[in-house]
Write a structure and sequence with these properties.
The chain contains eleven helices and eleven strands. By secondary structure, the chain is an alpha+beta fold. It folds into two domains: 146 residues, Cathepsin B, Chain A; 147 residues, no CATH class. The strands form three sheets. Strands 1, 4, 5, 6, 7, 10 and 11 form a seven-stranded antiparallel β-sheet that branches. Helix 1 packs across helix 2, helix 9 packs antiparallel against helix 10 and helix 10 packs antiparallel against helix 11.
Length: 349
């Protein structure tokens, strides 16, 4: 048996989760940009994870938390479900596709072979959409964030396909993975748009205010603006790593910052800047557009860090670390001012 949801249009994008959400929203008749979804879900964040294999920065809020915030803000029901095993997950996915419901799933990236990742480069918070299956070929039809019009770079070359045919076995391994960070554990999302609210000025202001507070008043030293300051200090300690770990830290964090890794560029700061620019059109608040442009400039600074991290991955040169640290300190100062200005602006309306 073969089934493809005929009126689902696979689409590439900037970030896996917002791109998957964009496609689901569009399929059900609620077209919103990735940037608007990102901003409404309070997507911008920062975290410095000091893992044993490699330290890692992250510039967006946690998977599952982001989706919950977005759902609550827009009065949508998004249920994060979890199948007990691969067999149950497989059956549930087929049933949804048979009912013409595309399936938003989480997957551990190295098990999706088209991404060309090393087998130990685990990240189970990657989101894709299943929109068809073929029992004769034992394949699912998957829409990821690449497309013919939106190629993406992987460690072994560029990919750009409108959809991928992925074996049932690959999908089962990717979905059932227990590896950290963000183990996939056969999670998928159910959507109910029955009571969706139209994007409004109040909705946007609430989102900007909430996100600004979370960055300015992070509850831990590893998070928010505190985390950027900590990263600026910790990166200097990378000189004590053995060369292999230092190079791995360069590779890992390059992809966490640069658009090649699905951030939209500049550790998600470009996406947030574009959200504010779009929000200025929705709200009539020109100041949002001006602040959005400044976020794009901060994104350029993050990308300059990413470029040096790529050089670090190739050379292990410790002389790169002080420059990265100094740039991170500059970013900390700039982002502190930006989020404080956003908080002031949204609190006075």
């Amino acid at each position: 048996m073969k089934k493809i949801i005929s009126n689902f249009t696979p689409n590439g994008g900037k970030h896996c989760i917002t791109n998957a959400l964009k496609q689901i929203f569009h399929y059900y008749g609620y077209p919103l940009s990735e940037e608007m979804l990102f901003g409404l879900g309070c997507g911008i964040s920062f975290c410095y994870l000091n893992q044993s294999s490699s330290p890692m920065v992250n510039g967006r809020s946690k998977p599952f938390i982001f989706e919950e915030i977005l759902a609550n803000r827009m009065n949508i029901t998004i249920r994060c479900r979890k199948s007990k095993d691969s067999v149950t997950a497989f059956a549930a996915a087929r049933q949804s596709i048979d009912r013409n419901h595309p399936v938003f799933i989480y997957a551990d990236m190295p098990y999706l072979k088209y991404l060309n990742l090393e087998e130990d480069y685990h990240f189970g918070g990657h989101a894709v959409v299943l929109f068809g299956y073929d029992d004769d070929q034992n394949n699912f039809y998957i829409s990821d964030r690449d497309s013919c019009d939106h190629p993406i770079r992987t460690p072994k070359g560029t990919i750009g396909r409108d959809y991928h045919l992925v074996s049932y076995e690959e999908v089962a391994n990717a979905r059932s993975s227990c590896h950290r960070p963000f183990p996939a554990h056969n999670k998928y999302l159910d959507f109910d748009f029955a009571n969706i609210q139209v994007v409004s000025q109040e909705m946007i202001l609430d989102a900007v205010r909430e996100n600004s507070i979370s960055m300015l008043n992070a509850p831990a030293h590893l998070l928010g603006l505190n985390g950027i300051e900590k990263f600026a200090k910790e990166v200097l300690k990378w000189k004590n790593f053995d060369p292999g770990k230092r190079k791995r830290a360069g590779t890992t964090n390059y992809f966490m910052i640069n658009e090649d890794g699905g951030t939209g560029g500049g550790l998600f700061r470009n996406m947030y800047g574009c959200f504010l620019i779009e929000a200025s059109e929705q709200t009539g608040l020109q100041r949002f557009a001006e602040i959005g442009e400044r976020f794009l400039s901060v994104g350029d600074l993050w990308d300059s860090i990413a470029d040096r991290l790529w050089r670090l991955s190739e050379t292990g040169d410790i002389e790169l670390l002080p420059v990265i640290s100094d740039t991170a300190r500059t970013i900390h100062t700039l982002e502190t001012a930006l989020f404080q200005e956003l908080l002031n602006k949204t609190s006075n309306i």
